[in-house]
């Protein structure tokens, strides 16, 4: 990419990079079957490549803030409230702080196992109502498709309905799971996205693209670019003045930008939509196989149903003589199990905690992963657990 020596500032300095980005974002939006309102072919929609979801959060939060304060006055900034769930990625909270929202006005709506850690419209509505009653101003909702801990999917349609009653901006963060939605059988996870103001996913997570590449679409590019537009004398040019070109510098934080679309263009052209779907399906199938192996061994349990290519599991508390789901010793046992699996150097898994329960996450997402690796990973987990369970603790 550097070989082309693209000077990624405005359209005039990098017309090829800009035009290719538009093409690639349109291709992707078709692959994801995003509503036409997010496309450049609509009156005000369009897509842009950022590096990270955090940047997408910052830019859309800023746009939402400006939009809501314009009619009511900047002195109301302290009253603005943003909403997310207790499963939303931490980068959202960071972004909220960056755009100067009072940290006391970030609402992490609680989720629970009974709804598989989804954000429910009822609990959101209740929280918003309480805020409105005390004179606060609801501004922004971050809904997630594929939460980081358990890949929970928030119900986009019903949540957008609640938010739209308060004229709020709704952003859909599908950083990990968005890629899966290029397959028709997984597209339903995005149902309701038409009610959102913006949508983003990280192509570097599961669409075979090198770090870092976050694709963001908005319904209203004029609202997005309003707080981000700069108009320095030295960048003035006829193309920009004509209003017919896209100056991506006004869609992001910095002026300078990399030739990001080239790497996604290469991926799309090399694999094609059929090839990409095959990769996703293969990964999901391997995760499903692992999930089946877990469920066949009664000593283990799934923490949540598997939707994509992440399996959340643990050794059941009863196996170590414990009764309660969130027993600290059960947590400790699973933590030690994960440590021992990773210490072998043969596989690497991660963990999380939801509802006080520590669990292990097995994720498939690399191009070189094969069925035999999955089988080996399960053998490893099973054998480590067996040896931990049947190794007598030395008597002192
Ligand atoms: N959102 C979700 C659901 C994620 O899983 C992650 C990262 O794991 C992020 C956001 C953060 O992404 P980024 O590092 O691109 O800001």
From TrEMBL:
Please report which protein family the annotation says this sequence is part of: Belongs to the group II decarboxylase family.
InterPro entries for this protein: Aromatic_deC, PyrdxlP-dep_de-COase, PyrdxlP-dep_Trfase, PyrdxlP-dep_Trfase_major, PyrdxlP-dep_Trfase_small, Pyridoxal-P_BS
SUPFAM superfamilies, per database record:
PLP-dependent transferases
Determine the domain of life of the protein's source.
Eukaryota
Q: What is this protein called?
A: Tyrosine decarboxylase 1-like protein
Originating organism: Tanacetum coccineum
Q: What is its cofactor?
A: pyridoxal 5'-phosphate
**UniProt keyword annotations, A-Z:** Decarboxylase, Lyase, Pyridoxal phosphate
Which Pfam family, just one, is annotated for this protein? Answer: Pyridoxal_deC
């Amino acid at each position: 990419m550097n070989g082309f020596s693209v000077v990624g500032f405005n359209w005039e300095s990098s017309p090829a990079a800009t035009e290719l980005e538009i093409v690639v974002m349109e291709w992707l939006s078709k692959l994801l079957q995003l509503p036409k309102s997010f496309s450049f072919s609509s009156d005000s929609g369009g897509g842009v490549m950022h590096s990270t979801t955090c940047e997408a959060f910052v830019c859309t939060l800023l746009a939402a803030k400006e939009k809501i304060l314009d009619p009511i006055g900047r002195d109301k900034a302290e009253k603005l409230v943003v909403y997310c769930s207790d499963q939303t990625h931490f980068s959202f909270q960071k972004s909220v702080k960056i755009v100067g929202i009072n940290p006391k006005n970030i609402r992490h709506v609680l989720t629970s196992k009974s709804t598989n850690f989804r954000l429910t419209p009822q609990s959101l509505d209740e929280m918003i109502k309480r805020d409105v009653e005390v004179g606060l101003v609801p501004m922004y909702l971050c809904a997630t498709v594929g939460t980081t801990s358990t890949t929970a999917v928030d119900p986009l349609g019903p949540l957008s309905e609640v938010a739209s009653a308060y004229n709020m901006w709704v952003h859909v963060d599908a950083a990990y799971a968005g890629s899966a939605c290029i397959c028709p059988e997984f597209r339903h996870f995005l149902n309701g996205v038409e009610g959102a103001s913006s949508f983003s996913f990280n192509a570097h997570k599961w669409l075979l693209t090198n770090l870092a590449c976050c694709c963001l679409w908005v319904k209203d590019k004029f609202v997005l670019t309003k707080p981000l537009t700069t108009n320095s004398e030295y960048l003035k040019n006829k193309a920009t003045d004509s209003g017919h070109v896209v100056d991506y510098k006004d869609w992001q934080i910095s002026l300078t930008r990399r030739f990001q679309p080239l790497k996604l263009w290469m991926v799309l052209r090399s694999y094609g939509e059929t090839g990409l779907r095959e990769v996703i399906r293969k990964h999901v199938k391997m995760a499903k196989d692992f999930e089946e192996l877990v469920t066949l061994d009664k000593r283990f349990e799934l923490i949540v149903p598997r939707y994509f290519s992440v399996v959340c599991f643990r050794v059941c508390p009863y196996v170590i003589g414990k009764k309660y789901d969130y027993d600290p010793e059960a947590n400790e046992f699973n933590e030690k199990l994960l440590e021992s699996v990773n210490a072998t150097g043969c596989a690497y898994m991660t963990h999380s905690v939801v509802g006080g329960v520590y669990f292990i996450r097995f994720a498939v997402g690399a191009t070189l992963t094969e069925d035999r690796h999955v089988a080996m990973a399960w053998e490893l987990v099973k054998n480590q657990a067996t040896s931990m369970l049947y190794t007598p603790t030395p008597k002192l």
